């Protein structure tokens, strides 16, 4: 298949993490978002968590008010968050699992086991014109669940694969990459728009960008961490270059093993 253009959503959560470690307003997530857009981000992602550990309500309001690119709000499927999203009206919402004791989002949403909780949220958000995605593991049953609850988009969790690549577990990495490849194909065949994210760096992002079904990557931690050394703009430019290489390739698989 001919690969459509691939978008980059930049997650700015950890700019807020640094700000909150000291208090005050510096570094400002909105300023980071503006730099990201200038450097080539197609959209901005921010996770408003129940405990407000990084992004806060005021951050979301300012992002929505000032950005000219799509704002993707990551959130749990709770009544409070649905109400906030319907008031804020971001371009998109990505429903994710959330536990207070986790350091970051760990694993995909169990859409298959949470139909009753997810379906009303997806319905309400979709009816308001907000694009809804589910952040799920690359598993057939999760893709089927996304279709069942009416979500038009899935974001495939790439973190397990990225972790295996990082520590050099080649067998596990290949098996997990194969799962991502198959899930991307199955999701596309079901009429779902396919995104991917979690743990991606330029090497792994290049490999995922080579999957023609994937039309958007959402990346945060590597970009913000690398920005400490080279600046956010150059970090995003490096990531975009990797994504372009992946998209131009016939489908390199070397990183999977």
From TrEMBL:
Subunit-structure text: Homooctamer; tetramer of dimers.
High-level lineage: Bacteria, Pseudomonadati, Pseudomonadota, Alphaproteobacteria, Hyphomicrobiales
Positions that bind 3-amino-2-oxopropyl phosphate: 11, 22, 199, 220-221
One GO biological process term: pyridoxine biosynthetic process
Molecular function per GO: pyridoxine 5'-phosphate synthase activity
Gene name per UniProt: pdxJ
Residues involved in 1-deoxy-D-xylulose 5-phosphate binding: 13-14, 49, 54, 104
Catalyzed reaction equations: 3-amino-2-oxopropyl phosphate + 1-deoxy-D-xylulose 5-phosphate = pyridoxine 5'-phosphate + phosphate + 2 H2O + H(+)
Localization per Swiss-Prot or TrEMBL: Cytoplasm
Protein name: Pyridoxine 5'-phosphate synthase
Pfam families to which the protein is assigned, alphabetical: PdxJ (PF03740)
Biological pathway: Cofactor biosynthesis; pyridoxine 5'-phosphate biosynthesis; pyridoxine 5'-phosphate from D-erythrose 4-phosphate: step 5/5
HAMAP family in UniProt: PdxJ (MF_00279)
Record's keyword terms, sorted: Cytoplasm, Pyridoxine biosynthesis, Transferase
UniProt feature coiled coil, ranges: none
